[in-house]
Amino acid sequence: MPIPMPSAEVPTIDISPLFGDDSNEKTRVAQQINKACRGSGFFYASHHGIDVQRLQDVVNEFHRTMSDQEKYDLAINAYNENNPHVRNGYYMAVKGRKAVESFCYLNPLFNDEHPMIKSGTPMHEVNIWPDEGRHPGFRTFCEQYYRDMLQLSTVIMRGLALALGKAENFFDPALAKADSLSSVSMIRYPYLEDYPPVKTGPDGTKLSFEDHLDVSMITVLFQTQVQNLQVETVDGWQDLPTSEDNFLVNCGTYMGHVTNDYFPAPNHRVKFVNAERLSLPFFLNGGHNSVVEPFLPDSGGEVELNPAISYGEYLQQGLQKLITKNGQT
Q1: Is domain 12-326 classified as CATH 2.60.120.330?
Q2: Catalytic pick among 62, 73, 114, 212
Q3: Which of 43, 110, 171, 209 is catalytic?
Q4: Is 212 one of the catalytic residues?
Q5: Residue 320: its pLDDT value, please?
Q6: Cα torsion angle, 100, 105, 106, 107, sign
Q7: What's the pLDDT tens digit per position in 39-49?
Q8: 50 C-beta neighbours (distance < 10 Å), count
Q9: Distance CA 138, CA 125 (A)
Q10: Residue 148 annotated to the active site
Q11: Of 42, 85, 214, 282, which is the active-site residue?
Q12: Is 48 among the catalytic positions?
């Protein structure tokens, strides 16, 4: 069962020291991360080095210029049975039923010669892209953005490692660039006069996406400044603040698993807001065969730890459970 978080406070943490060599400054940032992950489960990462205005411009242009036929041609198997992909591709709006749409892509290093692609290992796909002539520079931008976000997320994970009392490179082996199952989702929520029916939470709140835990190590999210996220706290559902400059970071269920919920995945949901906006999460995932042995910081004695599980097995199970609970996005 999801654990209600103690608070809804979302601090803004300057993560720039994590890129440097000052161990005292890194420790100070790690202490702030520890407090946030033990509080609301969320924090904003500032001084991250990503051009978020360029990001919004590219994604808005992409969604603005995509034709219905292009969307269908790129659509994942849930929408286009001719496409075997279940992760990479377009997630279509369905008139009268579903308004949100998105494009998801995976590790650019997944190519026909990658061993996991050659063996047909689940969750690994060679990215398909829209036509370069109609969308010049889009693929190049996206592949560089993936590399930038993988680097940023790895640095943030070093801060989490320090916060957990580990060496800062503790998680690095699980995050090898060639094998990472991380993904980028470029989600568009439209404004519509005739919006499809929306779901309603138990407390009567209208929702675009019901309560859930992220299936990731961490999620690093940029979104346009329309307040929509809520976190479940001991005092009920509370709004999360927005930021026009910074990335919202939270732990996923794998971090909850390996830390025995010392850093739990916060239960959160998306309120229904009929407004044009973007939600651009980077889901940081390990490699298929990577394993992080579960531990519990500051246990003070013998405790029963969660069993070790490979990241590929965890991700496949977790994504299927999420689809079963909340439906195909």
Answers
A1: yes
A2: 212
A3: 209
A4: yes
A5: 86
A6: negative
A7: 999 999 999 99
A8: 19
A9: 19
A10: no
A11: 214
A12: no
